[in-house]
Amino acid sequence: MPIHGTDDTRQEVLSPAAPEKIRTEWDIYLLFSLHKSIAVLVNKSRLQPVGDVYTIQPNCLDLEQSLLESQELQPVSSVDKTINFLDQKCLGTLTAFVVQGGMMVTSGHAALNERKEDIEIGKFVNNTLVVFGWEAAPDGTKPNSFNKDQVFEIAEVLVLKREKPDYCIFRTTTPIDVMRFPPLDLLPSDNLTVFTKGDAIITAGCPDGLPMKVAEGKIKSYALNAAQQPWQYLASVFRGCSGSPIFSVKDGSISPFVIGMVEAGEKDFQAVNEQVQVVKLTGDVDGESQEEATRMEAIRWALDRQASVTITIICERPARNRTPPTLVVSFKGKQLGSIVFKGNASPQGFITVSTATLMELNIAPIEITTLNLRLELPENPDKTNTATEIKLNSVVLRIANPDSEKSTEFIQKGRRALRNTITVNPTPLQFPAQILTG
């Protein structure tokens, strides 16, 4: 993800040259700056808790040293001194932002292992800190430490997908104070704005883990009704900006809705005669280069209590002439529904989770993480003819736009190829975070 255009026009997020809506309190109702909702993800080895603060460790390199040591650029012996921000610390790995309910969103490849080959959610959760306030002040000074109320550990990943689309929704161990770090609104599915080639955009994130920067750019292509596919744009974003929110700009005004999230793109740096140089591209929307952004539609419904939420359960058919019991499904003590597999009918049932149930539980759809399943037998069961256990084959949770015409706007996760035995005693079943692809 390189420089698009002849010059690096990125600005510090609090610079007087940065767009006003990013750095000042502008909304008379919410009274927040967009940048307050954006955080950097940091490996725990780079911050040391000391008393009430986290201090940046000596192993946190500046950009120049980081480029000299990059395995991807070897062999190199020097760095082009015209590259911006060479003396700034590369504290972070990715960018994230707050969404509804104090949950956070970033890119799914945040959980890639060091070889960039496999997803390792456990290591991501255990080794990552969420840090707010990684910003250069207007006078250019940068933080050397952070108060503990700016730093959060990750509790769990609720859902993750590595590509097409590339996203991760997670929750922190200590709830995010949404008055201090307000949630960003995602682009509504009923949005009537048509984005076309050349439309202006702006994004804020932490390129190469540096203090937060603002980058302006243009849309290259934005297909309609393609929620699972990325859209394309041109902006000077770099590795570390993955997970940064993107906003549209109309008539000089920044929209409050996140229309996309930085995902992937062109190479940032290259070695030329053993010198590290930044890659510069034309910035022409009709050219071949482009960056890719994750769309917000499917992610939005994962957080929206108005979503269509369906649990599909497939079991083995009880033995012939055996009366099937009722399968009862609950979450956090609340019964979500029940299924009776009757006669010769297919051993498959559906439970719809209502908006009222989600509101009663005070959760977003994606927070349905562990179900309890049990059998309910007839009041006077015929012990010789009533099935007292069933074999569970699969359980799938689907969260989608309630408008069935927009069929690409969904998230689906679950467990398949199960052989769990369900009896009258409650059996917990946890959904994995990773998305089902088939």
Describe what this molecule looks like in 3D.
With 438 residues, this protein is mostly beta strands. The chain folds into two domains: 300 residues, Thrombin, subunit H (Beta Barrel); 127 residues, Lipoxygenase-1 (Sandwich). Helix content is 7%, strand content 38%. It has five helices and 31 strands. The strands form seven sheets. It has a six-stranded antiparallel β-barrel with strand order 14-15-16-22-18-17. It has a six-stranded antiparallel beta barrel with strand order 3-7-8-12-11-9. Strands 23, 26, 28, 29 and 30 form a five-stranded antiparallel β-sheet that branches. The longest helix has 7 residues. About 1% of the residues have low confidence. This is Serine protease. InterPro entries: Peptidase_S1_PA (IPR009003), Peptidase_S1_PA_chymotrypsin (IPR043504).
Helical residue percent band? under 10%
| Proportion of beta-strand residues | 35-45%
Poorly predicted spans: 26-31
Task: Compute the separation of the termini in Å.
Answer: 31 Å
Instruction: Specify the CATH class of the largest domain.
Output: Mainly Beta
Structural class: mainly beta
Can you count the helices? 5
Strand order, main sheet: write it out: 14-15-16-22-18-17
Number of domains: 2
Mean residue pLDDT: 86
The value of Rg in angstroms is 24 Å
**What's the architecture of the largest domain in CATH terms?**
Beta Barrel
Major sheet attributes: 6 strands, antiparallel, barrel
| Shape by Cα distribution | elongated
Tell me the total number of β-strands. 31
Here the CATH topology of the largest domain equals: Thrombin, subunit H
Assembly annotation: single chain
